[in-house]
Structure formats: C-alpha cells, structure tokens
Amino acid sequence: MGKKKTETAPFSFWSWVIASIVLRLILIYFPKNLNLASRPEVSTPLTSFRRLAEGYWLKQSSMSPYAGSMYHGSPLLLSLLGPLTVKRIEGQPNHLLYSLVSVIADVVSAMLLRATGKSLQLTYLRSLESLDLVKQIRFSEILSSGDVAALIYLWNPFTIVACVGLSTSPIENMAVILCLYGACSRRVPLAAFGWVIATHLSLYPAILIIPVIFLLGCGPDAPPRKLFLQTNQQEKVLNPSKLPPAFSWRPIVHFVFWALLWSVYVLVLCGVSLRQFGGLLEMFKSTYGFILTVEDLSPNIGVLWYFFAEVFDFFRDFFLIVFHVNILFMILPLAIRLHHHPCFLAFVYVAIFSMLKSYPSVGDSALYLGLLEMQFSFFLFCGYVGVSLLSPVMHNLWIWRGTGNANFYFATAMVYACLQIILVVESLPLGTMEFPSNRLMAVSSASELCLPPFAVFLPLTIERDPVDGRQTFLERDAFQYRGRARGMHVILPVKCKWEVVMEMIGMGMD
Amino acid sequence: MGFLQRPFVVLLLILTYQLLQCLVAFGSVNEGDQKQEQFSEELLLKPLPDRKVLAHFHFQSSAPPSAANGRHHHLFPKAISQLIQKFQVKEMELSFTHGRWNYESWGGFDPIASSNAKPPGVELWAVFDVAQDQIDASWKNLTHALSGLFCASINFLESTTTYSSPEWSFPPASGNLRYGTLPREAVCTENLTPWLKLLPCRDKAGLSVLLDRPSIYRGYYHSQRLHLTARGSGSKEMDSGIVLDQTLTVVLQPNSRRAGMVHASENHIQPSWSLSSMFGKQVIGKCILAKSSNVYLQLDSSLVSPTNSITSENFWTNPSFELSANPDSLLIEENSLHSKGLSVLYKFQVENYSESEPFDLGFTWKNPVIWSCQQAPLHASRFLMGSGNERGAIAIFLKSKQLNEGFIGFNADNERCELRVDVFQVVPWYVKVYFHSLQVFVDQQPKAVSDVIEKIRVSPSKDKVSPGMMEIVLKLPCRVKSAALTIDFDKGFLHIDEYPPDANQGFDIPSAIISFPDFHASMDFPEDDSMNKSSLLSKFKEKSPVMSYTEVLLVPLTTPDFSMPYNVITITCTVFALYFGSLLNVLRRRVAEEERFLKEKAANKTGGLSMMLSKLSAKLRGRPWEPPQSVQHLSSFINSKLVFKVILVAGLAVGWQYFFS
User: Fold this and answer.
1) What is the pTM of this model?
2) Residue B433 is part of which domain span?
3) Are residues B300 and B360 in the same domain?
4) TM segments (chain B) (predicted)?
C-alpha cells in the first residue's frame, strides 16, 4: 500500500499542477475574463489591472504615472508589466500575455512553497537525528508536505480568481513566498531580495523581517534549546554536536547587508524610471501614503472603506493611527511567543496584515491559506464559502440593482473579518504548544517532530517506555492520522503511538 | 471758533475738488469720445424656426484706462472696476443660465449661439494678469467677491476640485486662464437684480424696462452673462480701458392667443408677437445715460432669401410678415463665407420714441414659413453608457448635418480635407476616467486613436484635489457622417460629508465644449455711419471659433447609509476589539498541560517556602545547583528592601507634614 503511494505520489503531483494550469488557461479564455477583473474582491486600487494600464498609458504619454490618483503601484511593475497591458495578439484574448505572467507567478510560488516544505522536512529530519530517533521513522512513507502545500496553493479558488482576475497580487504573493523560501533554505540574498520586493510592492510584508531573522538566526524550526538540555541531562549524555544551532548573528548581518543593497538597487531603479516625474518622493506619497491614509473608499472585502466613509472627519486621523497600530501592536507579543516557529510566525503575520490592511483582496487570503495548508473546521470552511458566495450577491444588490444598500455588503465584509480572526486565534495554540509535562518530559524535546507542511503542525510526542527507557513508536501502520485538534485536521505523517496522539489531541481540545 | 471752522474748510475743499473733477470729466466729453465712459444698450430680436422668439439684450459699458481718471466713475459700475483692480483680471466671463440652448433648431453657427449660448448653471472663466503662482489665490478671491456681488454660490468654485486650467482648447487660450462651472446652480431673480444694478438706469428706463421677471423666467432658455475685458494702459489699444458687456439672452414662446379662433390652416403660421405681448412692457424711451439705444430685428438668411428681392425700398413690405413699426434702416450681412444667402437686420432707434408714443414692435406673420437656422459643422451630443453604480462610460457623439455640405466646400478642393474639432471636457474627481480606454469611432468604425487624434492633453483627476481635464484635437475627414468618442470611468465613493443633501439625485458632469477652430462665427453688417458704431454689431463682427456646449450629464453615485455612522463605528471597533482581545488572550494563556505542570511544581514544595521563593526556584530550575545561602541572602535582601521602602514612605510623610505645618 505504502509502496504504491510512493510511486504514484510524484506523478500525481505533477498532473495536478498541470491540471491547475489548464484550468486557469480555460478560465482566461472565457470572454472578458468572467468580469473578474472588475470585482472589488479581486482587484483593489492597489492591484487593479485597469489602473496599471492607466498608469502605463500616462507614462507613455510622458506624464507621471502617479499624476492622477489612478495608479498606486510600483514603477518597476509598470516597466515590466506595462507593455503587456497594451500588447495584443490577433485572435487571442486581450490580455493573454499578462494572464500568462500571472499563471507563471502562481506556478513559481507553488514550486517555492514545495521547496520550502522540503527544506523544512529536512530540518526536522536533522532534529530527529539529534535525538537518535531517525531510525524509527521511514521518511519514504511520508507524504511530502511541500507537495500538499503547493497543490493547495494552486487549487485554492482564491488564488485562481486572483490569477484570472488580472490583479497583481500573484506577483506580490510570489515575492513574499520567495522571501520565506530564501530564509528557510538559508539563501540570504534571495531572502533579502524577496523581502525588499515584497515590501516595495505592498508595504505590509515589511514586518516579515522578524520571522526572516528568526529563520536565518536559528534555522527553520528551533525547538527550545533548554528542552534538549533537559533531555540530555536526564539521559546523562551531553552531545553538544547534536544540539540545535544557537542563535547566530552572522546570517542576520548578511541579510541586513543584502537587504540594504537590494533596496538601494530598487530605489535607484525607481528613481531612474521616475526621474522626470517628481522622483521618489512622489512615489512614496502615492504608494505608501495611499496605503496608509486609506484615501480610496471604494468597497472591498475589508472593513476600513465603510468605516472611513462614515467616520467623522475630525476622528479620521485618530482611527487611521489606531488601525495601523493594531497591526504593529501584535508584532512583539507574537514574536515572543512564537519565536521557536518562525514559519508559523510568518503565517500569523501574513494573516494579520491581510486581514487588517487598507485594501485587502482575496489574493491576500490566498497567500496565508497557502502558507497555512490545513483543512478547515467545518465552521470556518462554511464561513469562507458563504462569504465568497454572498459577497458578489450583496455587491450586485447594492451597486447594480440598487435594491440593497451598503450595509448588506459591509455585513459580509464584517463576517469575513471575523472568520479570519477566528482562524488566526484558533490556529495560534497549535503554534505555541509545548509539552513540558513530567510524564512526557523525556520526549518533549522532540515535540516539534511532527512534520509541518509549512507552518502549522501538531507537536508530536514520542513516548519513552518506562521499563527499558527505549523510545518506541507504535508499530501500527498508521500512515497518516488526521486528528482533530482545535477544529483543525492535522496531518501526522509519522507513525506514532495511537494513545499518545489521542492524549495530545485531548489536551489540545481543552 | 477754530474748532468749528476746521470742518467747514474741509467741506469746502471736498466740494471744490468734486466740482473740479466734474469739470474735468465734462471737459473730457468735449475733448473726444475716446476718453469717456460710455454706455450703450441694444436689443436683438429674432424669430426662431420653432415658433419661438429670441431676445438678446446687450448692454455695454466702457471705462477709459483707470489711470486717466483715477478711481471715480460716472457710468461704469464701481464694483466691477474695483474687482479688476484688486484681482488683476484681464478678461472674465460669468454666465448664469437656465435651460439648455437647442442647437438643432435655434442654430449653432451664428455669434449668438456660439458665444452667448452657455451651459446650464454658472460658468465662470477668468484670465489673470498676475504671476503664475498667484493665479489660484486671485481666482479664489475673485470667486468670493463675485459670489457676494451676484448672490450666487460661486464661492464653491474656490475649491480646487471644481476649476481647471485649460491650455489651448478653450478659446481665450492662455496659461493664466481658470475655468469653472457649477451645473447645479439654480438661477433666479436674486441673480438678475444685482446684475441689473450694474446698469446705469437699472431697469427703470431704456431697454432694460423690458426685463420683466415673470416673463423672462417663463422662457425656455435664459442666460445672463457678464463679460469683462480689461486692457492695461500700457497696451497699444488705448481706446478701451475696461469694457463690460452684459448680455441677457432669452428664448420666449409668444402667446398665440388667436390659435383657437382661427381656422386650421393658420395653425401652421408662426405665432405673431409684439414686445408688449412677450414682455408685458413697452419701451418708453432710451436710457438717458446711454449713448445709443437700438433695437434690431434679425431675420435669418434662409428666411429672407425666398423673397429674393430685398432692396432698401421694399424691405418692410415683405410678403410673409408685417411689422408694426417702420424700421429706421436696413442692414444686410456682407462677405460671409457661406453661400446660403445673407441675413438681414432691421434697425429701430429707440430715441425716436417717447412716452406719448411708446415703442412696441409687433411682428405679424402672414404666410406659413418654414426655415432653419444655420447649424454648426457637427452637432455634438453627449450621453452616458452602462448601467449600475460601479462604472460607466461617457460618449461624445458628433453628428454631421447633411445641410452643411456647403461650408465644407470651402476647403474641399484638396483631397485630404480635414475638419478640426477641439473637445474640452472637465470631469469631477469622483468620476474616475481611464484615459487609456479612450476609443474613437468614425462613421461607426473603430479607429486607431493616433489616426484621428492630433493632439491630446489630459490632466488626470486627483482624489479630492483636482478634477480631471481632457483637451483633444480631433482631425476628422470632411465627409464624416458621425464620430464618437467614448471613455470609461469608475464611479468613486465619497465620504458621507461630501454628498450633497439630495445625494440620490446624482452628480453633474459639466458640459463638454466642442469648438471648431476652422469656422468662425461672425456676421458683418456694414453700418452707414462709422461714427456711431453699434457695440452689438461689432461683437458680431469679431471672429470667434464656432463653439457648442454639450448636455450636462447626471451621474448617479451609490450612497452609503447616511444614518449609520455610529453603528459602523461601533461595530467595526467591536471587531477590532475582538481581534485584539482574543489574540492577546490566546498568547497569554498557557496550554493546560503546562499549567498543570506548574501547579504540580508548586504543590511539591514543602509549606515553609513562600510563593515568591517557589517562583524563584522555578526560574532557577535547570541551572547548576546553588547553595541555599544565596537564596537566603536574596530573601533577606528583598526583606531589607521592603523595610527600606516603608521607611522611605514614612520619611516622606513626615517631611510633608513638617513642611506644610
């Protein structure tokens, strides 16, 4: 059974990837891209394709692309993607080339996710090795978590919609994933490049510098060092060589250096392309300034547009500060609590800023859902499906038919925000779980052994036999166990003792 | 005595000064007409093809350059001259219009249609003679001054979102031009009264007596306009310091009282009218202060050409109509570009009439006549496309009239005959135009933009800062049947305070201006006496490009729920509190197992140790074992610290007591 799986898995992975590309192409060939490009859920003022085309047109007619308040993206995107907005191939859909770029961005993101998952797997393998547990685990039987993550990213309806809807969010997402991939695989220049580009494109990924620093400093997943010390103390064997690496500053200095280098590079490029149109100051004003001062009040799936359309003018600045500080406030507590799991920390950050950002779109949700890679609880799943069905309906009632009003659409946005909050809050305990209990003391060091697909994982415990002190795994052929803990299915790819798992899940539940 | 005498002396001085001034002024009258303030009043009447009558009042006041006679004026309104001095206005035009000029039946080619037909609401443009960076400030002050002067909300034009600065598509093109419109402005008597106040005789004497409010506002269209031209004294044209043209254009429907009585065939006859039947007043005499006071009756070229025999002898014995008063002279248009025939002016001098014999021009049709006015080369109309409140498109549609084959003939000899059309369009910022989506259709065939558009200048709208402006020069082939420009836009979403009180009515997009620089709307009526030139006719003679305004568009925008601000604020803040609170709670909470473990630790300690100590030991756990002394030492240290604190507080209290007692 297991053997069959190992043979079919890679094949099926690639076929699923190809199928997802084919699906995108089919959707692209629909007339007018199914009108997805004008959906407020897909294209925000920052990512809208039409605004990109307008910016390019303005630039072509030798005006500043930021002359009106149409375009708010990066001048680099304008130079790279702008020509594609006007290029047409006879007999093909209007924006085929641009759509192809989005598809490629999606596929590249998926591949990077896969590679990240693989590199995380390797890390866990190493940390298992340090506990001499590797013999018990046959990795060949483990469903590669990276594959799952990549496929979920590719098949997420939100990703597909953002890709077909000609928004620039696939590219922004690719930059974020590139940054995380670079950090996980310790390619410092790559990580710095991804971080700089992601920050340049949409500002919010700037806070990902914290997980990136943790990733570079102590490796993709560093269980607390003291747990290893405890373990070894009990076993009276101290093997420093097998300890997880301590926090090292060298890669971080490298990262900072490269980040500076890349940002100078990007700024110089932007400066060159905007030289005759007001320069960098105008760019910052109409990109970051536009993001921070929520100027555009057109409806989207966030909650800020309606709030700022209704709030009294003299409170506007106050609430702008409050809402942005809300993102910043959570950075430190999360970093303290989750610094052992930088990948998970990155996921939480991404989820938070895609929930609280000024102009959210489903493309942002696609990103954190791709990072999370978990199956929802039934409740959350229904919520997401419901919101994504209701939101167009309410929009239609309000905008097109005039029978509903703004409150209807705003209500779906509120529900969406609540769902995201629940998702983040519910997933957090999984990331913070450590088991320093007496009974499981010996194995708590290995508590992070479960292979996280990318970010969320359930700490796996391995029980030590009290009689002979050997660490045992259950011989039962449990290839993967999907336990429900805190409303989430968790993939446990390692054979493990049934009872332990049950106990652990029980703990998670209370 | 000395105290009493001083005011007398001052009074005497003032009186003598004034007398001297008057003398100087009268002296200047004698010196020559050039240096004098002048006022002239004229009225042009014109029957329109659709049974209506156009009345065009034209009052012109002029003042010599301000340097010549200081700040004192006899006829010229002081408010206006102060305005010009204060804001350095070079040229300015303000119009209040109600109704829409019907270009198709009232004509689009003659000077009245192209320079006196104005868009609905208020239109103001001004050219300033100040440095570039002060223009906006001058404009803002000017709008406020005019707003006070004319009892209108012109001050709304102060905001940068409402005015723009066209470079070349608006005829008095110059870099110092500002242009703004208020399409929604309701025009009524409160605007007319201050306008009449600028006339030396107000509406008490002269032609302005006819301006009876109920009859004017009953009309189909009325537009009161104020045009100012100020030339600096340094310029070569010394003849005109400030020229103020006040025009009022009304289109009235004469009462056809006899319609019911006469037999059916007479229904085709245009209604007859007289000044008293239209305005309810008669002209008693001229305004005494006016230099000239004339009434003209204009008959369109196509109306008189059938008679074919207009000579100075038989001009008032016309077969198709009859005049109740004998005109003083006849003027025939001269040297016109178009071959359609020439229009005719009957001139009546009001000074020949008196109170005993008031002037009441009656016009009676005898035969049914069908004619049409001269049309602009292309008839422009504008409409919205699309539905829903998210996006739409503006289309400007230019349609050729088959009638005007004649005018195109003038340059049809060369093969590549082209018709130049300038389009000037201002859109408010909440109509977010995508300029890249501009499409041009010529004869219903889509054309590449670069083939048709010779020159384009856009200034994209900035949210809440400036409106979008588009100036386009189109080069269309002469034989074009129809041309259309479409441009997509997204509708913006405004803050709750930015909606007007009747938000669901929609928002107006100001008229676009379509002008044809190749064609000049001018009519030349040679006058017999060059000494006494009519200001109206010299206006007609000026070569100004043919212009037409399109319709004002009404764009409905979605509205938020105006009753919701508190609900939205509270609900959103609740969601944020939920986010913040629950996230912090989760971060703070330990996992159950962890807590149990800590509790067990606490229970294991024998009762002798304090809570603090157990915590300390928990913290120290995992480190090499430390001697108990250190713990002792630590605890004693903390005790001494406590004691120290207590002593400190007590000391402070004692000091406080001592200090204040």
Assistant:
1) 0.81
2) 378-512
3) yes
4) 566-587, 642-660
